[in-house]
Fold each of these.
Amino acid sequence: MSGTERAVRARTRARPGEGQLLREEILLAAQTLLDEAGDESALTLRAVATRTGVSTPAVYRHFADKSALIAAVCMRVWETLGAVVREAIEAAADDPFQGLRHGAVAYMRFGLQHPVQYRLLMMGAPRPGEPGPQQEAAMACLRYLTEAVEPCVAAGVLRGDPQQIALRALATVHGCTALVIAHPYFPWPQDPDDFLDAAARTSGLGTAALGWLESEPREAAPTTAQYAEAFRDWAAALR
Amino acid sequence: MSGTERAVRARTRARPGEGQLLREEILLAAQTLLDEAGDESALTLRAVATRTGVSTPAVYRHFADKSALIAAVCMRVWETLGAVVREAIEAAADDPFQGLRHGAVAYMRFGLQHPVQYRLLMMGAPRPGEPGPQQEAAMACLRYLTEAVEPCVAAGVLRGDPQQIALRALATVHGCTALVIAHPYFPWPQDPDDFLDAAARTSGLGTAALGWLESEPREAAPTTAQYAEAFRDWAAALR
DNA sequence: CTGCGAGGTTGACGACGTCAAGTTGACAGT
DNA sequence: ACTGTCAACTTGACGTCGTCAACCTCGCAG
């Protein structure tokens, strides 16, 4: 059904040394296809090539195979996502705890606005073996988060290893985003922001409380009553 | 490369009225293929048919198309996952707050032990339109969680709409599971259970604290200092 | 004006999901 | 025992997919 798509315009062959131009056009066509169809199955080498006004195997001059093309698309998305989150965190730099919250909401909002791209990023098949540039980008994203957590630890709002705290925070925001995308029929609040904000606060509060609780190691898992006691200490220390 | 797989054994044709036998064997073969390959791309109609000792179109006598076969596999997984979680929750029924924690850990453990199946469940393409049996199963899973949250609300440990609380809890456990599966190279703790348990506690504590905080509505987002004050109230009320 | 290499095209292969048509064989009815 | 019927399957084909080998083609260096 999509096999009948025709070229948007005629292409003039790139001159030697300017092959990067086609690479750019291919990437653009791939992103456009994703956005239009809202379905990653529409991302076909043939469709991308046709849309670019070029024959299918021409793509192979610029990308090793289909997964390399997808990886390149993902890199673009990673960069955008990283920029959006960092911007949100820095916009509330005066209160690091609130900065984290804004970063989290920005992350989730981005995911919900670009569900197909987000699927590609986070729900693609896990690459076997070597840590390619894509893993590098994901690690960079985690690094941003860790750097945003560190001021909170320094200020005494959070306790524990900043990287582990960042991991749990990332898991929370990813969970919200992925769950809304994958199960839209769940009884979500009318305004998605309500859910995102509540989730971000839950994560922040829980992390703060847990850090306090863990700072005095216990033998067994604490009871609910012990949780309450730890909370009192936390609140008192923050006054 | 996988096209050369041969039948495991010769099949004797089912007698009229016993076609369900083949359906069962097909489902089994599909699950085996997933487990062996650890990759959902190995789940091919041809591979399933060959493994079952039958021609490819024979599958269509029992499943409308490939997605119907996948959906049937998912239903099996949903049932197992639901049973595992419910069992864990009921094992700690005396302290509902701890019951939730155990349910969460059980959920995540299941996902990490069956990553391919979990991907199929939660990361499949979102079905358009009508709420099929698969959405029904997901809703049932959410219902279990909601029922586990309700005693906590009744006991005063948590506050708010049980369903919304359950949604946030599900988002948290899903986020942990999905993130570990999709990004195994992240600096996770050596023992996965450490992460799972910390995440479950974080979510529980955060939800409890947030519920307390939200019970007296505010105009703007609370500051970090206000969070601390709310914590003190929570701890006092739980004594 | 000529060769050559970067930047493409053509045509084909095998694997995939899917369908239309034919085949087989266990049972019911006589 | 013979036959018809219908569920259960097989055969063969179509179109699409990713991928590859071989060929073409143009702009520029010599």
Note: Chain A touches chain B through 72 residues (CB under 8 Å).
Amino acid sequence: MPSYHHGNLRAALLAAAERGLREHGADQLSLRELAREAGVSHAAPRRHFADRQALLDALGEAGFARLDDELRAALTGAGPGFVPRLHAVAAAYLRFATEDAALLELMYARKHTEGADRLVAAAAAPFGLMNDLIIQGQTENILEPGDPQRVGIVFFATLQGIATLINGNLVAPDLLTGITETAVDQFLRGSRRR
Amino acid sequence: MPSYHHGNLRAALLAAAERGLREHGADQLSLRELAREAGVSHAAPRRHFADRQALLDALGEAGFARLDDELRAALTGAGPGFVPRLHAVAAAYLRFATEDAALLELMYARKHTEGADRLVAAAAAPFGLMNDLIIQGQTENILEPGDPQRVGIVFFATLQGIATLINGNLVAPDLLTGITETAVDQFLRGSRRR
DNA sequence: CACCATTGTTGTCACCGCATACATTGTTGA
DNA sequence: TCAACAATGTATGCGGTGACAACAATGGTG
């Protein structure tokens, strides 16, 4: 016999929302449906999220946290060399992006509310990881000197753009590996000191 | 006294939808509101669009057509030199992308319906333009030999990724010019024959 | 001019988000 | 230990939506 207090409703709603997002996309996510899945009344979610958009923003924030985790895990497995680390980050990014396409869309959607500040703040971690990696390349004289923030943003943008084209059915998924390697190769031979 | 037959309802709905998209974003677009603006009953739009998603797909298709027009116009104004043409295309892409951020989201959203085939087909034109530009660069020995499709897709992805970061408030808009120039510079110096 | 296709209208249903008022339980401080 | 308050539920209401079905009006065609 379930009690009146769920006890962990916010987390349960987010978990259900991630499943729903994966299966049906963001447009089909509904607070009422999530409430039914969690076994509470339809108004209960509004005690944990100001509105539907706030729940979507929370999903996006969790997405950037998980992206950061996966990029760091990829770096750990790649060893100390800059070039293998760059390849590892690119591969991990695109794996995350193509496996969780609907979440990616949420993460990068235009932000309408002030409540999206936490989402934007969460993005700083993977951006910082990329920045640090560029600085490593420059310190080791593999990359030319230059503004690491700009260089890192361009590389990050390239990965995100590739994911968008693949997820949007504008580029065939079987081209992914080749395009990713072309992207890293172009990035390196363009920034590599001569 | 308006007649029973609107006479040009499909075009009127699309025009109203573009205005609504620009002002409020895709999420706030509603068939009933568009019908009211066009002065017809709420069910009339369904005579021209199978459902709401079909209208959104039509907007995306028009977006790719307009993007292609703007890229070609930029090329016309850039003269024959490959490098100025590349810069012109990059600038025109990002101008379009940042001025019509909501439309851009629609163009690149994940496609759920079979009806999105026309949208994907419409994307072929700007992709083809980019492909042709890469071939020009390779023919003139400014770019290294290589698969022009892959190279063009990576460059296209980079521009789209930059637009996504800017439009998603993940990168400050005032960084746009510098990042775009860095992107073109990295692209050239990476693919430029040495 | 009749018939058919196209394109409208009216009405309905089920769903939704959001808001308000009230109810139940958990926590805290005296 | 208990009262007060906060947190977190429920019930109800409202206005809007998308999609669908049945019917109506007009335009085009043979």
Note: The mean pLDDT of chain A is 93.
Amino acid sequence: MTARTSTDAGRDIPEATVARLPVYLRALTGLAEARTATCSSEELAAAAGVNSAMLRKDLSYLGSYGTRGVGYDVEYLRYQIAREIGVTQDWPVVIVGIGNLGHALANYSGFRSRGFRVVALLDADPSRHGEVVAGIDVQPFDDLEEIVAEHGVAIGVIATPAVAAQDVADRMVAAGVSSILNFAPTVLSVPEGVDVRKVDLSIELQILAYHVQRKNGIVEAEEEPA
Amino acid sequence: MTARTSTDAGRDIPEATVARLPVYLRALTGLAEARTATCSSEELAAAAGVNSAMLRKDLSYLGSYGTRGVGYDVEYLRYQIAREIGVTQDWPVVIVGIGNLGHALANYSGFRSRGFRVVALLDADPSRHGEVVAGIDVQPFDDLEEIVAEHGVAIGVIATPAVAAQDVADRMVAAGVSSILNFAPTVLSVPEGVDVRKVDLSIELQILAYHVQRKNGIVEAEEEPA
DNA sequence: TAGATTGTTAATCGATTAACAATC
DNA sequence: TAGATTGTTAATCGATTAACAATC
């Protein structure tokens, strides 16, 4: 209902929508690679694994990038979403904790290709310093502040054991990192304004286990013979 | 309002609650290790990083395991949640795709300690067969059906490149796997009744990037000089 | 103009939170 | 009995979905 100027780009996107934008971006990249010029909300929604009404609602928060009766221009929409997320620019990232998972993250090609550049790998263990992982020297954790300042790092990844994670987070925040991706199985407390997302592998498995148990367990639990 | 017998354990737990139960379980394990016998919903909620009203509501779906005026018995509640999730038993798990991430997952100690047992590591690449990772031989992907049948595997982990993931999922489902944890950056389609959870590292970073941009971008976007 | 498909409204659904009666 | 804290109700909030007017 409210008139929108071209500079007022419809702020305040719901969290649930923000979390799906990267999924749409990936689907659009797939369509672009398949040389698809145009797609309907129905097609894009299918590729992204969501309901088309939800897709249209989500996109409506960004602006009006489709054409009624026609659909969306794949390349144009792809760019608009990338711009909205912020992945048209390059984000310097620091990874702390170069164990098995840190190794895997450092080598993960999906970061590079989506606008993230790993500028440093840090580890508190001196025996790891100097090791080269994914073409990058592992450096002492104490270099954190210097590296964050030098590269303007806003995003830090924690792949340390749980006991170290809060300390690492505190140091990151003090150094100026405002967003943290936490792989350590622990709850981090951070000041207002700092964003933490957590990826917890064993929690994901536990959620699955619950559902397996439900599916099988009904028989067992109710002891209802046929 | 409805009377509950001891065998009717209050089914139908909301998804959001299910996803938090493992977090509570971990917090309780932490309290138990610290020799805390009893805790209030306030304390447990703080340890889990949630609101205490939400914690109590969540726990109320499991049953009535606290004591008014007193709180919860840590060990007792820990066991009840573990039982509800299903991690009092052992879950055999298969990991497919033994690249960097597969290595990290195979070595992840958090699985073992939480009731998950990696029974096989599979990879389609013959050059990887016979390699020993985390004490387990890497086997051909074609052994999948045999392994699933032999160990009664219900949970499969996909850590392959995106292009292979759908095929792997199809084979897993056909072999009898009913729950899949997918690390490949692609949308899987599976039949009704099969559960898929996805962990997408680059999507997590993109969500963070969006928020960083919002925090910084407001200045830049609105061009509002002080 | 007729057919297609968006963008938006309104309805529904589910999740969170505050408040408090029940009760230890 | 008085204080503490649960378990539950009811209010609020946010997310999803169906439906359709707008419009290409």
Note: The beta strands of chain B are 38-39, 66-67, 71-73, 91-96, 116-123, 132-133, 136-140, 155-158, 179-182, 195-198.
